[in-house]
Design brief:
Helices cover about 25% and strands about 25% of the residues. It is an alpha/beta fold and about 450 residues long. The protein has an eight-stranded parallel β-sheet, with helices on both faces. A six-stranded antiparallel β-sheet has the order 13-18-14-17-15-16, with no helix packed on it. The chain has a two-stranded antiparallel ribbon with strand order 4-5. The chain is globular, with a radius of gyration of 24 Å. The two termini are about 30 Å apart.
Length: about 450
């Protein structure tokens, strides 16, 4: 009888106004984005070596007096990447240039780079080493390019400082300079998982360089983030690492910084939640710095800042509030002047990775199926404190609402419910000792395709 009911309900779910072929689905590269789940971004620049606390506004307008302060004697990108992997990261991003304009690679375009230094006799190439370390430890390499600010060249918010023809000529030159720099990075270092433009690459019809065709030509399988016309994922609206819930992967326009979105009075909420009726696939990214406790929020290493490391309990809340809410998590890591991640950071990241595995690595039981109701039956009563649901995103986000029930004294009792699932929904629940749990999709736009329903 239950099988007959399931079949009837499945038919009714398919008879909704939205047909399966109309449901937005991710591209192949966006599917890889979801599957990556968590990555690290490494910020490193000249001011790490000045012994002062970072002041962003000053850094954007005042060039570093002596770039040869850059002397990371023990620089070891293997240590960086191995630590990120221990934390659970599957990709790693390097800020190849940030607001100083200084480049962490051997550039033929940007003379303000490692080849100008006394360090390693001008032969150092941190990007090359970084990519080699990613390959060695099986993380996907990615880069972050800062062109919105350049304190050396007097570029503020994409615009060349000054008036008249002098500024106009520099603006034209700077756009071309950025394009050549992006072409060099895209063509010399192999395949990237993603390229992230700090603050975007702006409007190629305005102040911004036309970088999208360059990325498409040399890095066709790379995620692009972003200009005013295109983003392959979206920023989640905060730098806390925690996504708002529900978090949908669909969006009303093709770019998170599209003028139509930014003109909406609730545009920040659209960034945070997405739009379940959206026709474009634009999944969420949640980012935060590891050194973000006690009122601090540091993307770069600063002296006397060890007390700002987030505790393990907060890191787990961040993981479950991002990876567990259909978003990809990016954690900011800060190599110090020696060229290494501080030992305190290494220890915290290592224990974080172990705790993720302890809590989420070994399910008590798992089922899957293409129907609205799935039941887990354990051989004996189990203490259950969490669950996981994964949809098959190649078929789109179909689930709109669900509930989780436990069989207690012969009766089904609701223990959790929710809205968006998407790539993954992780949630802890009050511990309950049961043999049987039931997941029911109470609302969907087409027949649900559940790859994984697990309990922990």
């Amino acid at each position: 009888m239950n099988k007959v009911i399931d079949i009837i309900i499945g038919i009714l779910l398919c008879m909704t106004p939205v047909h399966a072929q109309q449901i937005p689905v991710p591209s192949m590269k966006q599917q890889k984005w979801h599957q990556a789940e968590m990555g690290a971004i490494f910020h490193y620049d000249l001011h790490v070596f000045d012994g002062l606390r970072y002041q962003q506004e000053k850094n954007r307008i005042t060039p570093i007096a002596d770039y040869n302060i850059f002397q990371p004697e023990y620089l070891d990108t293997d240590q960086w990447i191995q630590t990120a992997k221990l934390a659970g990261c599957r990709f790693a991003i390097l800020t190849v240039t940030h607001e100083t304009g200084f480049g962490l690679w051997q550039s033929e375009v940007n003379p303000y780079c490692l080849k100008a230094l006394k360090w390693r006799n001008g032969k150092g190439d941190i990007l090359h080493d970084f990519i080699a370390s990613c390959r060695k430890f099986d993380l996907l390499p990615a880069i972050y390019i800062g062109i919105r600010w350049n304190s050396l060249l007097g570029i503020h918010n994409f615009q060349a400082v000054g008036d008249g023809q002098y500024a106009k000529n520099r603006q034209t030159w700077y756009k071309h300079y950025c394009e050549r720099m992006v072409e060099e990075l895209c063509s010399k270092y192999g395949d990237f998982f993603l390229i992230w433009f700090d603050g975007g690459a702006d409007d190629p019809k305005g102040l911004g360089p036309d970088v999208e065709p360059i990325v498409d030509k040399y890095q066709p399988n790379c995620l692009f983030y972003h200009n005013v016309n295109r983003a392959d994922f979206r920023w989640g609206g905060t730098e806390t690492g925690i996504m708002a819930y529900p978090c949908w992967s669909t969006f009303p326009v093709p770019c998170s910084h599209h003028k139509e979105v930014e003109s909406l009075p609730d545009w920040l909420n659209v960034l945070k939640h997405g739009d379940k009726e959206g026709v474009y696939w634009l999944p969420a990214m949640a980012d935060f710095p590891l050194r973000g406790a006690n009122g601090r929020h540091e993307w770069f290493w600063e002296p006397d800042d060890e007390s700002s490391l987030l505790p393990l309990s907060e890191l787990m809340a961040i993981y479950e509030g991002s990876v567990g809410r259909n978003a990809v998590l990016v954690v900011g890591l800060t190599p110090d002047p020696s060229g290494l991640l501080p030992q305190t950071d290494v220890e915290r990241l290592t224990e974080w990775g172990k705790e993720i595995q302890r809590r989420w690595g070994q399910p008590l039981a798992t089922v899957k199926g293409n129907k609205k109701q799935l039941i887990i039956q354990c051989p004996a009563p189990q203490e259950v404190h969490a669950y996981r649901i994964n949809e098959d995103l190649s078929r789109g986000e179909r689930i709109r609402r669900y509930k989780l029930e436990a069989k207690v004294d012969g009766h089904w009792v609701k223990v959790a419910d929710g809205e968006s699932v998407g790539y993954q929904r992780l949630e802890t629940i009050p511990t309950i000792r049961v043999k049987e749990l039931r997941l029911t999709v109470t609302e969907a736009i087409a027949s649900p395709v559940i790859l994984d329903f697990s309990i922990f």
